[in-house]
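About this split. The held-out portion is used to measure sequence recovery: a designer receives only the structure tokens and must propose an amino acid at every position. Recovery is the fraction of positions where the proposal matches the reference. Here is one held-out target exactly as it appears in the evaluation file.
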């Protein structure tokens, strides 16, 4: 049965149950205005929903009953027992129709003209045939007299209309398989769909969630005690208790989950009204409406979503004549997209409008004293755009009923940060704007990293943690100072650092920058910074408790929690820390940015950050660190098997495991290191033997290997090292992940330009193509590629994705062919869009080849053929 129809049957059954009681109460107390309003509202809702679902028969009966109730409500007609009897007959007929609707998923056939005529007669102040007014005051009518009165239209009166009504009831009863003659005159049993669901008060669910949270705390404390005792007799039952608690927690969480579409329901009407008000043509596209999240989180994001959609319609989209002049369709598009990613919810609000006016934002920022001209000159476009999140900031030329008052995006950012979320913004002039929100699934129990500073422990929400870096001591990574500010040289940028103990004014011995410390790399919006801590413990599921009133003014904390050993620790708020150190929405971290480097292997001689590990022997192996989402350690007894595959429950999902080496049967190995690869909502765990180090070195594969899963060998950190073929291992878990391998056949060191907005793909394809003998430059947008063309860069071939933000692959191809510099280069489309129509469009735009993503053999052949064909042309 359709979900919408099932929900309608459930809610209508509940309304009908209320109506029976309410009508009897009204019969006894005709002056009860509240009851009359309740009855009218319920019938009106039933009628309106029937019209929406196209249930015409049901709608006609409900409409006629609503007319009578309307006369009651207006005071033009008294709710006498006779009149209420006819309304009750209409309620019975609605139940009959609903029974047939549930049985066949369509309205049963039947003639309701006699019943509707009776209702119309009552509305006009006449008694229908066969119904007599007892003359007894309504307020003294006994309940026992009402039930027989409800039978009168069909049983007591031998009129033709009554016979028709009875025949309609009998028809439905017969369809349901009833052999009893009494079924003709009694209302059917309650709709069975309604019996499958119950409504529970939100307060009850909140209380239940609180109890489960306390149970989780008690479970954690018991497990902590059990770890301190060897061969404890409580180990097995505690493990069972832990599993039951996790299942119970998951079950309670499901009762709180609601589809995000519930927060989108009012947006189509909002967009329609805005389109009429602004004279624009607007199409609203909503994707992922069934993505579920906690109802508490849902309530928090309703207003921010409304404001962002309003902004897109008013500020972002142009009027039809402007769009025509810009070569765009007259109808602008606003797209809402929601999906799960790594235990969080990602919500995107994008439009294809004019984009943000960066120049005007910069001028406004200078005028408001938010930055100087010199500071603005040192910021990127994206950093300048972040000023729109500042309080009171607006570039609108005039105040309208829709916007322009300077109250909006700062409130959006504040509300998102209140629930531990982050907000990011990307905009390109003439192409549109995309706002991305990352929020937790729930506010009650969250995943957090436990750290220590100056002897005190703190929790950092995992949603904000990007990676961990060990600095000082025996590590080659060192913390440096620039203008007395500690920074970390992390791959392509200088990362500003904040020592947590100093920020919180904790007592302790001042530590040298050369002493061992850990840097928690944190991202807030577009800004990244590092928190220097003394120790890092484990990631735990913690129960969030509100901050005590005395600490609410300290914005560095978002709450507190109780650990398994009974300790109470504070939960750090990365957004508050960013504001405290002057990084939030001001582009502060951007000032420390080094000259942008390309992705892994993008320039000849450039270095890549590599993770070194050992698996399946003594040989050292390497993988680009940028591909690795997280490093985890898992207990071998947590590993499960299903469908011939190894799985582990990881962050609320089942994650496939692939053993790189001798498998998981190593004697005495209770815990194993796992490299977690994540992209586009999927994760794979690569099980290894030992993590060795993180180094920066050049990937120069000197010996190509034909062994599956290995690209070849290179000298890394002074040792012969096998570079693994990440694509091979990902395919072991997901056949449809990146099917790309090395090109073994090229004997010419050609220069390739790879254009793809996925950092994951860029960092994976670069080492593979480098090992094949190519020099690879990888960029994330078509605009960045065109800048290289304008700078005079020379390449032999271009490999481009189709679906990219800003200029898509088709527009990029046309731009390439329109200029003299690269117009004759082979241009290969590497994409998942491989329909005949897409391929025809690609060739028309200027692509020389069209390859499915990631067909290894086709890509290898395509690059080789393209380069060979170009050599022939140049030779002639």
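Reference sequence for scoring:
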């Amino acid at each position: 049965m359709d979900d919408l129809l099932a929900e309608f049957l459930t809610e209508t059954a509940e309304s009908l149950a209320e109506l029976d009681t309410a009508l009897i109460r009204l019969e006894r107390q005709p002056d009860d205005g509240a009851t009359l309003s309740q009855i009218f509202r319920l019938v009106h809702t039933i009628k309106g929903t029937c019209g929406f679902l196209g249930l015409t028969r049901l709608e006609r009966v409900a409409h006629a009953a609503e007319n009578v109730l309307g006369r009651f409500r207006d005071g033009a007609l008294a709710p006498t027992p006779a009149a209420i009897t006819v309304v009750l007959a209409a309620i019975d007929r609605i139940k009959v129709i609903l029974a047939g609707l549930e049985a066949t998923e369509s309205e049963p056939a039947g003639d309701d003209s006699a019943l509707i005529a009776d209702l119309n007669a009552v509305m006009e102040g006449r008694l229908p045939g066969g119904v007599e007014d007892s003359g007894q005051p309504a307020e003294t009518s006994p309940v026992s007299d009402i039930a027989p009165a409800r039978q009168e239209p069909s049983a007591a009166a031998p009129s033709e209309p009554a016979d028709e009504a009875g025949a309609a009831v009998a028809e439905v009863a017969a369809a349901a398989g009833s052999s009893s003659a009494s079924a003709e005159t009694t209302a059917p049993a309650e709709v069975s769909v309604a019996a499958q669901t119950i409504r529970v008060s939100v307060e009850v669910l909140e209380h239940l969630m609180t109890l489960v949270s306390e149970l989780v705390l008690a479970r954690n404390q018991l497990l902590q005690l059990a770890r301190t005792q060897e061969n404890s007799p409580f180990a097995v039952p505690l493990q069972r208790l832990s599993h039951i608690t996790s299942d119970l927690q998951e079950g309670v969480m499901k009762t709180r989950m609601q589809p995000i579409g519930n927060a989108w329901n009012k947006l189509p009407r909002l967009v329609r009204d805005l389109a009429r008000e602004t004279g624009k043509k607007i199409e609203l596209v909503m994707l992922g409406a069934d993505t579920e999240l906690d109802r508490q989180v849902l309530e928090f994001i309703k207003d921010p979503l409304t404001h962002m959609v309003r902004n897109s319609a008013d500020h972002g989209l142009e009027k039809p004549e402007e769009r025509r002049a810009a070569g765009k369709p007259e109808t602008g598009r606003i797209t809402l997209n929601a999906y799960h990613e790594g235990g969080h919810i990602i919500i995107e609000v994008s439009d294809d409008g004019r984009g943000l006016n960066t120049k005007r934002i910069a001028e406004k920022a200078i005028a408001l004293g938010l930055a100087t001209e010199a500071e603005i000159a040192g910021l990127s476009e994206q950093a300048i755009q972040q000023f729109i999140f500042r309080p009171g900031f607006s570039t609108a030329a005039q105040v309208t009923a829709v916007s322009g008052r300077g109250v909006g995006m700062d409130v959006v950012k504040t509300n998102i940060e209140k629930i531990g979320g982050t907000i990011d913004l990307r905009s390109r002039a003439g192409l549109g704007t995309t706002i991305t929100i990352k929020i937790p699934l729930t506010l009650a129990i969250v995943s957090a990293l436990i750290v220590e500073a100056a002897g005190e422990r703190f929790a950092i929400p995992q949603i904000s943690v990007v990676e961990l870096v060990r600095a000082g001591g025996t590590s080659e990574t060192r913390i440096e100072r620039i203008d007395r500010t500690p920074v970390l040289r992390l791959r392509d940028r200088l990362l500003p650092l904040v020592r947590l103990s100093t920020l919180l004014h904790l007592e302790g011995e001042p530590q040298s920058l050369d002493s061992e410390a850990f840097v928690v790399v944190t991202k807030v919006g577009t800004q990244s910074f590092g928190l220097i801590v003394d120790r890092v413990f484990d990631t735990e599921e913690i129960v969030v408790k509100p901050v005590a009133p005395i600490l609410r003014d300290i914005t560095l904390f978002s709450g507190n929690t109780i650990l398994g050993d009974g300790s109470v620790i504070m939960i750090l708020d990365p957004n508050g820390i960013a504001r405290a150190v002057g990084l939030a929405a001001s582009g502060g971290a951007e000032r420390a940015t080094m000259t942008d480097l390309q992705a892994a292997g993008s320039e000849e001689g450039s270095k890549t950050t590599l993770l070194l590990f050992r698996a399946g022997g003594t040989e050292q192996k390497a993988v680009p660190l940028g591909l690795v989402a997280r490093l985890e350690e898992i207990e071998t007894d947590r590993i499960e098997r299903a469908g011939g595959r190894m799985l582990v429950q990881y962050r609320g999902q089942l994650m496939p495991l692939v053993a790189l080496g001798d498998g998981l049967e190593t004697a005495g190995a209770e815990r194993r290191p796992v490299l977690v690869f994540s992209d586009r909502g999927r994760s794979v765990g690569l099980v290894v033997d030992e993590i060795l180090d993180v180094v920066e070195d050049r990937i120069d594969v000197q010996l190509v290997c034909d062994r599956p899963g290995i690209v070849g060998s290179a000298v890394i950190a002074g040792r012969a090292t096998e570079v693994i073929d990440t694509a091979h291992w990902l395919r072991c878990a997901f056949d449809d992940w990146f099917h790309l391998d090395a090109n073994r056949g090229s004997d010419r060191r050609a220069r390739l330009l790879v254009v793809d907005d996925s950092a994951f793909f860029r960092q994976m394809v670069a080492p593979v193509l480098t090992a094949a003998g190519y020099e690879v430059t990888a960029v994330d947008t078509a605009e960045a590629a065109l800048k290289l063309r304008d700078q005079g860069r020379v390449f032999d071939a271009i490999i481009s994705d189709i679906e990219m933000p800003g200029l898509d692959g088709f527009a990029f191809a046309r731009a390439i062919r329109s200029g003299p510099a690269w117009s004759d280069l082979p241009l290969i489309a590497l994409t998942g869009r491989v329909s005949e129509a897409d391929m025809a469009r690609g060739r028309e735009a200027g692509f020389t080849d069209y390859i499915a993503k990631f067909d290894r053999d086709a890509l290898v052949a395509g690059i080789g053929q393209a380069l060979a064909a170009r050599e022939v042309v140049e030779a002639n």
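Annotator remark: Residues 334 and 351 are 4 Å apart (CA to CA).
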